[in-house]
Give the backbone structure.
Amino acid sequence: MTDMRVAVLGTGYVGLSTGICLAEIGHNVICIDIDERKINKLKERKSPIYEPGLEELLIKNSSTGRLTFTTSHPYALNHADIIIIAVGTPQSDNGRADLSFLEQAAKDLAEHIIRDSIVVVKSTVPVGTNEYLKQLLLGQLKNKVEIKMVSNPEFLRQGSAIQDTLKADRIIIGSDDAGASEKIQEMYRPLNVPFLLTDVRSAEMIKYASNAFLATKISFINGIANLCEAVGADVEDVANGMGYDKRIGSAFLKAGIGYGGSCFPKDVKALLHTSREKGVPFSLLEETIAINDHQQELLVGKAQKRLGELKGKKIAMLGLSFKPETDDMREAPSIKIARALTAAEAKVAAYDPVASGNARKVIGEIITYVDSALEAAKGADALFIVTEWEEFRQLEFEALLDVMKQRIIFDGRNCLDEAALQECGPIEYYPVGRPAVILRRDD
Ligand SMILES: NC(=O)c1ccc[n+]([C@@H]2O[C@H](COP(=O)([O-])OP(=O)(O)OC[C@H]3O[C@@H](n4cnc5c(N)ncnc54)[C@H](O)[C@@H]3O)[C@@H](O)[C@H]2O)c1
Ligand SMILES: O=c1ccn([C@@H]2O[C@H](COP(=O)(O)OP(=O)(O)O[C@H]3O[C@H](CO)[C@@H](O)[C@H](O)[C@H]3O)[C@@H](O)[C@H]2O)c(=O)[nH]1
């Protein structure tokens, strides 16, 4: 059965992608957000975020009338009998997940739900939160209605959110109510994605375990990369060689300056917080975090070692967003790198294809934002690759190196073509976990 009536709370990456994709497979979706500016933009069929493919589907599904937007909870809830919560669960000071947006969402629901409903929690929440929310909701319900809860964590990645939603590896449905579980399976069935049915607590844990495992895989390969530098091995070949083993797999073995973004940093810390709260030591997670933090400092350390005092040196920074194909700056490694460089009194000129506007809000005016890689490179003592945008791989490095004061590149993402760089004449190229390429004038 298609054409279910669904309300989605929150139009961030998750809410918006979910809402759009559910409309795309035939449901009637209303998305609600408390942020009036976002909703106004969405009503004009413009995406408030940079996410490939999202705006096309937004326009398509808005024009069929299957996808609408509102800031009014009563209006949206009047429309729906499946309510998906996709509000943010940021990190609070002690590492714990901040549930205040969820608590407010539960209050909004309690006030305005007028019919029996299934409430689906898509936000990433610590184990036990679904039960807590249910109690909160039931305790404040204004109308006499029946509420069933389903935990349905999300696994999309920014930059490929739409494809990840339409072609997910799996859909996790955690519920103790067979009817609710069946209805949510029906909702997703047109996607033709495998379901894993489980209890609520296990569903909540699957999300944290998945993110923590992937983050740990990244820290592991970064640890190996640092060792490779010490022993003269090449981490790209090592990761390749490991990845052929099906038990290991090649994904998430890309060494570099560590993981950032709106999820891995906060979710690993939230899981660690749970382990401490329960008195179950999980020092592996501490190490995952420590390696990640260290990795972001290493790049600046390498520049200090090569250039000496950074005071007055000019650094060109290519890339600001936490990964390519997004303008999201949450926990982007560029933030720490920009702060460390400017603390050492280096002058930083940064270029990013889409994230400069958001970067200004986070990093501020301690660095200069320019409109091209070439402009950033002018007069630079070194160039840092911080985000592996495809645009940077395609750069004319000969021209870029020619405008630099010193022909030195630190590639924090191992994304440049070494052979092509060697064609550019004298160069010093320092990747992560691989031997440096040093071609002097008389080589
Ligand atoms: N970003 C990702 O790639 C991703 C992927 C998987 C899971 N998650 C998880 O999904 C959740 C949402 O993440 P996000 O990145 O989409 O969040 P986000 O911060 O980008 O967006 C959340 C939205 O919710 C809105 N909101 C807050 N309170 C509300 C309320 N009471 N009613 C309606 N709207 C409200 C906010 O205004 C905001 O627009 C988080 O728990 C996150 O950990 C995120
Ligand atoms: O081999 C790798 C892979 C990733 N990264 C970095 O790890 C971070 C996260 O990358 P990615 O996982 O691609 O992006 P996210 O959009 O943050 O997605 C993650 O976080 C989401 C939110 O929970 C989950 O839904 C996704 O499944 C999970 O991949 C980025 O800084 C990447 O540069 C590496 O350093 N090496």
About this structure: The longest helix spans residues 200-231.
